[in-house]
Amino acid sequence: xxxxxxxxxxxxxxxxxxxxxxxxxxxxxxxxxxxxxxxxxxxxxxxxxxxxxxxxxxxxxxxxxxxxxxxxxxxxxxxxxxxxxxxxxxxxxxxxxxxxxxxxxxxxxxxxxxxxxxxxxxxxxxxxxxxxxxxxxxxxxxxxxxxxxxxxxxxxxxxxxxxxxxxxxxxxxxxxxxxxxxxxxxxxxxxxxxxxxxxxxxxxxxxxxxxxxxxxxxxxxxxxxxxxxxxxxxxxxxxxxxxxxxxxxxxxxxxxxxxxxxxx
Amino acid sequence: xxxxxxxxxxxxxxxxxxxxxxxxxxxxxxxxxxxxxxxxxxxxxxxxxxxxxxxxxxxxxxxxxxxxxxxxxxxxxxxxxxxxxxxxxxxxxxxxxxxxxxxxxxxxxxxxxxxxxxxxxxxxxxxxxxxxxxxxxxxxxxxxxxxxxxxxxxxxxxxxxxxxxxxxxxxxxxxxxxxxxxxxxxxxxxxxxxxxxxxxxxxxxxxxxxxxxxxxxxxxxxxxxxxxxxxxxxxxxxxxxxxxxxxxxxxxxxxxxxxxxxxxxxxxxxxxxxxxxxxxxxxxxxxxxxxxxxxxxxxxxxxxxxx
Lengths: 264, 307
Known about the structure:
The complex is a heterodimer. In chain A, 73% of the residues lie in helices and 0% in strands. By secondary structure, chain A is mainly alpha-helical. Chain A has a single domain, classed as MetI-like (MetI-like fold). Chain B is mostly helical. In chain B, 37% of the residues are buried. The N and C termini of chain B lie close together (12 Å). Chains A and B meet through helix 4, helix 7, helix 8 and helix 9 of A and helix 1, helix 5, helix 6, helix 7 and helix 10 of B.
């Protein structure tokens, strides 16, 4: 739960920080190019090779990271839950075909498809989100299907069927609420994956484009200036690692809490 | 075993076909053509270019031509490296990537399994907790963060190891890229090996062995290790995929002329045929290695074959 607190802290600083800082996001301070981080001066995290304030840039990167995490998770949540619940509820041959498709998709190296997608189409923000969400729904679909399959046999669902409640209504009113716990756990576990993919793409120059920035992009900029300005690499790298670590710990903790059958 | 093998082989074919169809359609759904230029060319020249690359044919005909080529190992000409075919480019850069990948996988398996066993045998000790905490950190930190930090530490500050591939010779240039690639996998393998060995060690047949007076070392070596390694073996498929993805980044950082670097260059240059070819090649590689893992799994664990 400490990780949850740290995440909230990072999110808050990222949201408020750029407002409080005296420096503008795009403004270049030509007197202070590649200035090392100092507490006393205006540039807390130092500046980059164009004299831009690294604190504001890093916080903008963190904002992008969180937005990606949220949007991609919602996309994977919607697709995964709908797909999994349908397969699990309808069952039989439909279920077999739907899950066979998921198995096939599992074996395909999706990350390369996303890159292909980004090569072929314009590199816009929205496409990246959707693409990342579209990769991540497979796990969710499998877990939701398994859960639905067992819920389907429970008395209250059979009772609902008996008195003639329609299938979509059963899924939304009776099955979906019982899925919430496990879904929350797996959303927390997909968030770090989404962040990882986004920063991977941005690192390669295929993700978020200038003038916008993201942590992956900042790490890449940092590599170019590694020899003289190690802070340009270390600050975004540490932040990215910290965010991922916190999400992973949070997810693990939630799994132990909600889903005692899976934890050993 | 023969039936199992055949069924697995047949199962791999639709996956590969799906990959080729999807990738092909994606590339051909692209707005604009690969030869759209700033300056307008005379229509005759455009038509000639289109004809030379068979872009004037209907889409199904193009697909069949491409599929036929792929089956023969021919991915067509590269659009940006005009003098090379995609197959030549892949053939030239793949060997380096294979060396990196194999070394990283070996390192990850050996170190990961050893660490996992040690942690499992001292379950809940301070050592176990430290190792598992480190493993969690290792899983969380992406390759493109580990690699530059290692470079900064060992190449820039300490100057023990070369920072880039070109301009250095011998085995030392392998060290940093391989370690960067292997670290997250070491962490995964260690966690898996620990969890599964703990589970096996708590099962009945181990208790029987213990009751008969066998020591811990003998129990682990002769009874527990083989069943405990099955989950690790089944993770090898995803691990290969992760190492391939990681190699894209690592080759870019260290300037290694491998397949990953080729792929990134191709992506940034919008070299459609090159990217298409590399994606299909990667996919085929992953499907093939997954198949090998499946077959090994079936050979080791007879229960799997019957399902």
